Amino acid sequence: MLDYRFIKENLDAVKENIKNRNMSADADAVVELYDRRTSLVTKRQELQQKRNENAAAMKGKMDAESRQKLIEEGKRVKDAISEVEKDCEEIEARLEEAARKIPNMAHPDAPVGKLDTENLEVKKVGVPRKFDFEARDHVQLMEELDLVDFERGTKVSGQKFYYLKNEAVFLEQALIMYALGILRKHGFTTFITPDLARQEILQGIGFNPRGNESNVYCIEDEGTCLVATAEITLGGYHSGEILNKENLPLMYCGLSHCFRREAGAAGQFSKGLYRVHQFDKVEMFVYCLPEQSDALHEKLRSIEEEIFTGLEIPFRVVDTCTGDLGAPAYRKWDLEAWMPGRNGGEYGEVTSTSNCTDYQARRLGVRFKDSDGKNKFVHMLNGTAIAVGRAMLAIIENFQNADGSITIPKVLVPFCGFEKISPKN
Q: Would you call 198 a catalytic residue per the annotation?
């Protein structure tokens, strides 16, 4: 969430940012409520001062009539303070609700646009392979190689659930171990995180646990949700804490199951493993000083590039436009891998990395004590190291052979224990 005073002092810029992000939020209402809260706080302080003066006067010697007047005045002040505090609580709740709808400010260089088609390509790595046979998509290849069972996944769990089978099980584990090895080399602390988080943690990160547009599964009557990403659990790890400045940055990575409702996400590119309700992911997360976040954002992006360069999968990097950023992100880079099974070949998102500045930290109460003795909010960043389903999709489509077999990328062979997935007899 943005600082209330920042919103008031930069109202026009905040409103323009809301417009550029194609979001609905009322910055004017935030300023109005903020001013009302400020006025009530001032009034409460004045009444508290009167209460203190009245209490001090009661200690002196006086006649019964004067003492009774002070007692009655004390009751009136006490009742007035109680009324003002009640009003303060109501205004504070309304102010926080309105402010939570306002997105983070976007980086000045983020392209302005409404749709992901308006993202700006900034880099390409690798050359898409030219096949001397008709390339197939991953669904056809995996079903023919007996690597997946979507039909029984639907029967048992519902649409967009699946069973991975045979060599695909080892390929998934290989991708996880490959990513974790790279992150350990870069100094990340590794976690396996819980699959559940409290609703207030999701709200702090920027996920909406309620309503038809929510992308998460909530556990009824428990106040918890299945996590959509380890960003949630890693971001909540230090909620409400004051971190030691000398320890920053903290670089964490977490392996988790991810659960997403994907409401309204149907489309021609959502089939198979690209958009599912459950998948495994290794997520990077960083807590840092404000002056460190831009450089660390570039570092997270370079790690994502290192991972996919090692897999020998062609990809491009895009600077995400304002309308596709999501509320918490200040700037976001997406990596889009070449997917030969899409209309004869197209790029599809496989990772993203976001600098969320202090937006999430304000909501979660994560601060550090600065050298001036004041507590200040940290900056928080996140990035996908490997989303297993989409990485597997890209490998299977890019490394397919004319006989229907799949060659395993060299970096994964030591983890898989085999070099090729061949058709079954």
A: no
